[in-house]
Amino acid sequence: MHTGRHFLQIPGPTNVPDRVLRAIDMPTIDHRGPEFGRLGLEVIEGCKAVFRTGNPVIIYPSSGTGAWEAAILNTLSPGDRVLVAETGHFATLWGRMAAKLKLEVETIPGDWRHGADPGEIGARLAEDRGHVIKAVMVVHNETSTGVTSRIPDIRRAIDAARHPALFLVDTISSLGSIDYRHDEWGVDVTVGGSQKGLMLPPGLGFNAVSDKALAAARGNSSRRSYWDWHEIIAANADGYWPYTPATNLLYGLRESLAMLQEEGMDSVFARHDRHAAATRAAIRAWELEILCVDPYAYSSALTAVVMPEGHDADRYREVVLNKFDMSLGTGLAKLKGCVFRIGHLGHFNDLMLMGTLAGVEMGFALAGVPYRKGGVGAAMAVLEHTVPPGKHHMKDEDAA
Ligand SMILES: Cc1ncc(COP(=O)(O)O)c(C=O)c1O
């Protein structure tokens, strides 16, 4: 029996603002009628500001995994070779999907504690003089590890190698939380999902596309129908879809886009940076280890905390859930039991962060995890001493 609100501090799905819930709580309308057409046009246009693109953004009634599949099936043909940077569990899963879809997958191995290495990607592409590699696939924010990859640097590495490979980027846990620019950074397909920085329930997947990606989609032989961009883009011209869209989630999307717009994207990113910095201060004060070992790759959306030797992260998470009604993220795949993840993205503020960190700290004592007291105070000091979002863009000044 719990009173008050549940703390959903996994790195997505995230807390859905009441404003968005109210927007979704409306009668479902005729998805071929004029009112829907206006809604469709509004959200399709609104998404462009979040992806920072002037090109089409395709919205699917799907999870992020569906949008992954759409990116692959529209641009690549069976037998094509792709280069995947193994940053963690989600990069691995995306690569596995590519293999299931009959692509030849070449992986650049990683230790799950660093971002994708632009130098290694560039070197591999430079070797590929025959241009056998058709796409480079990178997860911008690896949700399993709390590590962010440097997308502009990877773009520069692809260009420096004078390689024509398409650049496919997963922003499922960075969109609306961490600075991202589809057009400026020369990304060909950006994959997104609704349930993280966009502050929506799960159920929408996104593909932002470049002209080069659209051209590739015209010339490849992958079997696809539901995921096919061109039919959707054609119907989208009037605000409609070739099938029944997720009407009520689109009401929610209209509201969440308005919220992001009102706050201003730079302020949204600064808010996430600041909460992430405060979280890291807490972890250091507890004398625990942050999984990400490159300060320039710290994720502003989530932080993965390494459990002290001999202590099981999932048992600790269970104590926190039972005692404080707070869900923390589990360790995925090879990190199971070794880390827990604190989500600090989406609809979030200073006091939600302090409540979260208080629950984490009190949980250590209850679960018998060795730690030094004072993490909450250290985080509070960061919040007190940093300029609130909207005034100043803070970026990793705690990196030293
Ligand atoms: C980075 C990343 N990519 C892909 C996915 C898969 O998305 P979904 O679970 O919505 O299918 C997730 C889910 O958490 C993710 O974090």
UniProtKB/TrEMBL annotation:
Keyword Transferase included in the entry's annotation: yes
In Swiss-Prot or TrEMBL terms, this protein is called: Serine--glyoxylate transaminase
Domain of life where this protein originates: Bacteria
Residue numbers bearing the N6-(pyridoxal phosphate)lysine modification: 196
Q: Name one GO biological process term.
A: glycine biosynthetic process, by transamination of glyoxylate
- What is an example of a GO molecular function annotated in this UniProt entry? L-serine-glyoxylate transaminase activity
Q: Where does substrate bind?
A: 341
InterPro entries the record matches: Aminotrans_V_dom, PyrdxlP-dep_Trfase, PyrdxlP-dep_Trfase_major, PyrdxlP-dep_Trfase_small, SP_NH2Trfase/AEP_transaminase
- The UniProt record lists the Aminotransferase class V domain at 44-314
Please tell me the species this chain comes from.
Acidiphilium cryptum (strain JF-5)
Q: Which family does it belong to?
A: Belongs to the class-V pyridoxal-phosphate-dependent aminotransferase family.
